[in-house]
Amino acid sequence: MRKQTWVCAHKAKGEWTDLTDSSRMLSSATCPDPAPGLAEPLLQVAGVVVRFGGIVALGGVSFDVGAGQICGLIGPNGSGKTTLFNCISGIYRPGRGEVRLEGRSLQAVSRHRIVDLGIGRTFQNVALFRSMSVRENMLAGAHHLGHTGFVANALRLPAVRREARSAQGRLDQLLDLLRLREVADTPVGSLPFGTQKRVEMARALIGQPKLLLLDEPAGGLNHSEVDELEGLMRRIRAEFDLSILLVEHHMNLVMRVSDKVVALELGMKIADGTPDQVQNDPQVIRAYLGEPVAAQPAQAAHV
Ligand SMILES: Nc1ncnc2c1ncn2[C@@H]1O[C@H](COP(=O)(O)OP(=O)(O)OP(=O)(O)O)[C@@H](O)[C@H]1O
Ligand SMILES: [Mg+2]
Question: What global pTM score does this model have?
Answer without folding.
Answer: 0.81
